[in-house]
Amino acid sequence: MKNKYFFATILFMLAVVLPFIVPVFWVHVLTEILILGLFAASFNMIFGYMGQLTFGHAAYYGIGAYTTGLLMVKANVPMLATLPLSMLSAGLCAALLGYFCVKLRGIYFAILTMAFGQLVYYIIFQWYSFTGGDNGLQGIVPPEFLGKAANPYYFFTLIVVTIGMIALWIISESPFGYTMRAIRDNAERTEFIGINVQRYMLLNFIIAAMFAGLAGALWGPFNRSVAPDLTNWMHSGIPVFMTVMGGPFSFLGPLVGSAIYTFLMATVTSFTEYWPLVSGVIIILVVLLMPGGFLGLIDEKFPFLMRRGNGTGKTDGQGRQER
Amino acid sequence: MNDTDPTILKISGLSKSFGKYAVLTDVNYSLQKAEIAAIIGPNGAGKTTFFNLITGYHNADSGTVLFQGRAITDWPRHRIARAGISRAFQVSNIYPRLTTYENVRQAILAQKKRTLDIFTPASGLARESTLELLELTGLLPNRDTVAGILSQGDKKKLELALALAGKPEMLLLDEPTAGMSSEETHETMELVKRLNAQIGLTILFTEHDISVIFGYARKLSVLYQGILIAEGTPEEVRRNEEAQRCYLGEDI
User: Fold this and answer.
1) Residue range(s) defining the domain that contains residue B66
2) What is the pLDDT of residue B244?
3) Between 1.10.3470, 3.30.70, 1.10.1060, 1.10.10, what CATH number should domain A6-316 receive?
4) What are phi and psi of B69, to 5 degrees?
5) How many contacts, defined by CB atoms under 8 Å, are there between A and B?
6) What is the pTM of this model?
7) Among A165, B91, B170, B248, which has the minimal tally of Cβ within 10 Å of its Cβ?
């Protein structure tokens, strides 16, 4: 137990120190890592903890981004107030769409979440008068106290993402979080111990969507604009990629995956336009060589560094499922 | 529910078929409170389906299941579990990636209705009752083992622990000792018997092991090709000719 938060502490200290050392460009990259890391961590509540693959998680990220964008641009609502409202709107949409998704499992769950994600995408894409259609929304400017420089917005993001991650951590370690692992391991048995599995899955779906919405809400002002692409299924693939790369069976896996992915994208795109080719090769290598992702590998080689994640590392040290 | 009514389970006209194949035909069955009863019959007789219909795993084609006077037919599984019927499965049905301790704690937290709590760390909750149940089922030495790599016998013990965690009124055990050594079988059945004597837990089990059936059941029912053909005390069933012909056969 002595090293329980060792890894998380190191990451946090790095996050505090790095922006003072690296050039401005990299501060932007770090901001992106944090935002997408929270997005991926929220995705992993459904994937790693509940055992279902959602291919429509970007819908809730996008809804969060658009909620913030619309409120700031059209109603002049202060940014701080838009964050909880973004969580709310993403959560409400998830309640509506998730109701149908949690009736399905496995590939059918993935397909339906993807279909609903595309539905959200097309609504935003077509609704010119409200969302700006394919033009998106421009001029989402962060408040003055966050200034024009990179660092203030970065630290603001760091605070919000840290709070978000701590909240997700608390949820994942709660009886509710363990019920998610139980559903992942054996949904049938979970019904027979008296748990309404569908209702719990829906609740978790809503929670995950709310934190995706929070991540999205940070994105709009960071990027000064939002576009419908944020919600489409290509964008839903990003947290999948990050989580598989970082390690779905560690709480911090998705965040680490975000760091690797975003860092690689920032470097690779500076010397080649074939980023998808590079990322494709990387994911093939990760899936073949590191089935537990990057943190799964660390956990195997340096077990003292990490607190056990959400169940699987304990099985055979490679994050493989014992079935 | 009428407290003076000693009948805990009353099943009438229960039928189930899968396609053209009738698995259970017009089964009538009743069980007294605090009874230890066994359903016996050859493989494919419909024993597991019978359990599946009681616990809501399948919906019945026709017939009713009354539990403590309430019609629970076609209730969802979790509601039946909450109503007081716990079940241990024939093939152990556990959480393979959680530790033995976490498995049991999960079932206890479900029983205590703590599973909607998203703020309290689960690690500190229900500690005593979890350890108590692990002790009772002989799983304490394996508390930190990932359940997926437990031995077959220990998995069955865990299966029983998960069922007991629900604090049931009635416990259904589907071949509780399959895969256990004879020593473990004895321990498990003694535990079941003790729970029956101490807290009046009603037990309904299926079993192939003749010594377990005749050693523990006070009431036997013989199921053959989906039809309940004989019922009574072990002695009565032993003497019943039809039961002998259909199942018991050779030497008992």
Assistant:
1) 1-84+170-190+201-252
2) 78
3) 1.10.3470
4) 85, -5
5) 119
6) 0.91
7) B91
